[in-house]
Amino acid sequence: MSTGSTSQGAALPAAEHQPANLAPQSDRVAELRGFLGELVKAQAELVGAVAGGVFLAGSAQRRAGLFVRWPEAGAPGDLPDLFRGPALQRLEKIAGEVVASPRQADAQVAGRVDTVTVETPGALYGAEPVHRVLASPLIADGRVEGASVLVMPAGASVPGERALELLALMGARFEAFLWRQHAMSEAQHRVLLRETLELLDASQQGADARTMGSLMCHEIRRRFGCTRVSIGLIQGPAAVLKLAAISGSEDLDKKGPASEAIEAAMEECALQDIEVLYPEPPEAATDPEQRRVSRAHDRLSQKYGPSSIISLPLRVDGDLVGVVTMEREAADPFPPAAIPLLRLVAEFVGPALWTRRLADRGVLAVMKDRTLEVGSTIVGPRHTLVKLICLLIFIVFAAGALVPIPKRVTADAELKSSVARTIVPPFTGVLEDVMVRPGDVVAEGDLLAQMETGPVILELDELLARRASLALQRDATLGRDEVNAEAADLQIRELEASIALMRDRLRRAEIRSPIAGTVSRGDLQDYVGAVIDPSQPLFEVVGRERVVVLLVDERDIGMVHRGQEGKLSSRARPEDRVGIEVVRINPVAEPDRGGNVYRVEASILDRGGDALDWLRAGETGIARLRAGRTTALGALFGPMADELRLRLWW
Question: How far apart are CA 228 and CA 329, in angstroms?
């Protein structure tokens, strides 16, 4: 069924909600149930129905469904099959459609006529009795709160519109009943409010908290016919409940047996933080929620009575600040109707008396209480999450300021070879063969490439032949023509120089590696047979030793020195850390990406073996040099402080 709601004027009582300052909600629900039972009975007799029920719409405080049925279960004339199984579901559906259907302004008749089939054991299919159903809405303050559903005799003809008109007229009593209940509730509220205001007005005549408490006790005793009324308040840092005022007594004997018995009863109420009624009401035998521990109340009644006692907690902003205990003759216990008023009185007495007590304090007492309040707020049970967050922030801040952590100088780094050689052709000629490719590991003196030597050999043979010819000419003219002999000797010397050059070319035709290392450049397979000259580099061989070049920011260069150690993390293998040691610092800064950096060379600390063979020239990474100790706050705010010193000095 659809969910309905009422206005503030005429509201249905919720069977599951019980306010603290009103009459018991169960009484109101029982009264409503009785009225609706009489209403559906009268409607059934009016139209000649054999059974009927009231279905209420659902709300936040009650469930939708059957609320009252007529006849009651087990009564004469009861048709049990109508209120169970498919028949009940059919009736609930009809009522729900009536509640949910929108009301038309020009509609003459509200409600609907429908049918319900009652399954009868042993009946043939199609022979079950079919009853006409009249469903009329129950309206309060313009809202549909439910529907009365009446079941007519099987086979009876029903004047639908006329019957619905009569049901609607009689259903108007529902709204009148709700208004009457509302008026009675308002009157009860006024009585409670008047009594409370009169009590507070009388107590305000007291000059201080003690006199005010005595006046309150006197007024409560007079208005409610008590034999004795006592008020206890929380006192001291230990929050001990002490007797503050008692009716009929100006001077309190706080150490007397009667005062101790009363304080014990108050303490019993305060520990349970709920009202305690002695003797227990009869409902406590069947309702565990109304049971209380009342041993101290029993001792007070037996020793200084017998009496009927009720103790109510006094609260300020939800905190317990005291207890009021009222005693009456055992033959005249507190009536149930007076308990809501006593609750309301306690709700107003507590703040009024506590406020007056705070106003009576001196300057030193106020300072003391404020200090205790601040301390209680800090270490008390309230705002636990906020306190945990603040405590965590404080712990983090303290750890950041006190716990030392390693200080690092961070810089971009690049791996370079400590030794590299570029190899060019020894002479202009034809490349005959290439023995290596980039990535090959070579030793010192290994053959890298071979130049073609045929033309050199031919030219060498030619030069040797010319030298032999000139030697013969020189020898022939040595004794006859000194001039020609001298010229031939000069030509021979020139040829010998050329011969030496050709022999050197033959020797250097085999291009060999000058160092041990790895070929980094020189993929010349496509140049075999091509003419090359010394202006073209052929190979580059880099040594196996690596050096790390760090680009240290000028702000951090003061913390870098030779022999300083650190770690290198390569982008190729960031999970590995390689130890490094500073060996050289370039004294001149270089511009780099809008700032100045210093080049710092660092050697790789040997791990032994081939553990670092994966390091290759040209790789980049991040290097961190150890620079002593600092704190997290120093590392975080140190650069900011340096920037402020740089910009704000004068």
Answer: 10
pLDDT at 103: 58
Closest CA to 154 of 189, 121, 119: 119
Task: Answer with the residue of higher pLDDT: 532 or 74.
Answer: 532
Indicate if 292 and 230 belong to the same structural domain.
yes
What is d(CA 149, CA 54) in angstroms, rounded to the nearest whole number? 6
The answer to whether residue 496 scores a pLDDT higher than 90 is no
Q: What is the pTM of this model?
A: 0.41
Domain containing 147: what range? 25-189
User: How far is it, in rounded angstroms, from Cα 60 to Cα 4?
Assistant: 9
For position 18, what pLDDT does the model report? Answer: 33
User: Span 335-353, mean pLDDT?
Assistant: 79
Closest among 476, 415, 425, 473 to 452, alpha carbons compared? 425
HSE, side-chain direction, 13 A CA sphere, residue 316: 15
Report the alpha-carbon distance of residue 114 to residue 130 in Å, rounded: 10
From residue 425, how far is each of 460, 498, 511 by CA, in Å?
19, 19, 8
| CATH code of the domain containing 560 | 2.40.30.170
Distances (CA, A) of 535 to 155, 422, 522, 538: 122, 12, 14, 9
Whether residue 183 is found in the same domain as residue 212 = no
Q: Are 623 and 551 in contact (CB under 8 A)?
A: no
Helix axes 209-224, 338-359, angle to 10 degrees: 170
Pick from 390, 394, 406: nearest CA to 632 = 406
Token duo for residue 123: 């009946």
CB of 628 closer than 8 Å to CB of 561: no
* 181 & 254 share domain: no
Residues 573 and 478 occupy one common structural domain: no
On whether both 146 and 181 belong to a single domain, the answer is yes
CA 542 – CA 441 distance, rounded (Å): 10
Whether residue 279 has a cis bond before it, omega within 30° of 0: yes
Helix (H, G, I), strand (E, B) or coil at 609: coil
Compute the distance between CA of residue 78 and CA of residue 84 in angstroms, rounded to an integer: 12
